[in-house]
Amino acid sequence: MEKSIGQVRKMIEENKKSASLTNIVEKMIPKALLVIAIISILTTLGILVTLLSETIAFFREISFVEFFTGTILKPLGQNAQFGVLPLLTGTLISSAIAMVVAIPIGLMTAVYLSEYASEKVRKVVKPILEILAGIPTIVYGFFALTFVTPILRSLIPGLEPTNILSPGIVMGIMIIPMVASLSEDALGAVPNSMREGALALGSTKLEVTWKVIVPAAISGIVASFVLAISRAIGETMIVTIASGSSKNFTFDLTQSMQTMTAYIVEVTGGDAPAGSTLYYSLYAVAMTLFVFTLVMNLIAQYISRKFREEY
């Protein structure tokens, strides 16, 4: 009897120690998570402060109006000019081409996987999309330069060896998985009761898909488009390799153009002495790119809140 009582006391003491340790862990986890969150915030603030400080130094030497309205970018030489419009047009044109490719293909893929594909087909197609998303962008860049560009040059007379059309198309291929995956999630979130109700009223499968399901998921679909645009605007290696470094202010897709990210790579890889105007221009362009990406993400969040359907 005394032996059993001793065992019970021992178990109670062990449980108390275990409970004490659990309480300590429970108290430490929120603090650890808070520290991690603070680190993320401080990192973002550090990036922003660095960009702002160096960008302000740039605009002390170059006029704000000249930078955002200038059509000539010649960062080297005695009479250097720092107009960002050639980079802006290159970035926007390449992103527009990418979205022309990615939006219809990505959306159609999402609709097929969500509404039409069988489970066997979905198990095959989804991994292929994930493989596309996992390919390094430098591989896409060489693919655009050595495969897509020669094909386009055989079809389009006057297309330069480095041009903005080829990397734009390949960027569109690269972001198809993003559009397809996010759009499929949005379509899958629509309740089956809406599908069943529409079918019960005599609608065809096609009518249910495009008149009921897609409108119901429009907030998520549009948000996927905006996020994909942000991804295209921030792409670096594809445009660096396949679009060249010509700082042309033009809307001709057959010509070589440079994007903001490609310019940043060029300056950081060159001989830009610290403290020079060329060096500071790197941060001014990076800040412009940062604002572009931030605006795109804010638009995506606004659209998601504005048109979100709750079921």
Detail the topology: elements first, then pairings.
Layout: H1 2-59, H2 64-69, E1 73-74, E2 81-82, H3 85-116, H4 119-134, H5 137-155, H6 165-188, H7 192-200, H8 205-216, H9 218-233, H10 237-242, H11 260-269, H12 277-306
Antiparallel strand pairs: 1-2
Helix pairs in contact: 1-12, 3-6, 3-9, 4-6, 5-6, 6-9, 7-8, 9-12, 11-12
Explain this structure.
By secondary structure, the chain is mostly helical. It has two domains: 2-60; 73-306, Orthogonal Bundle (MetI-like fold). Helices cover 77% and strands 1% of the residues. It has twelve helices and two strands. A hairpin with a 6-residue loop joins strand 1 and strand 2. Helix 6 packs antiparallel against helix 9. The longest helix is centred in the first third of the chain and has 58 residues, at 2-59. The N and C termini lie far apart (61 Å).
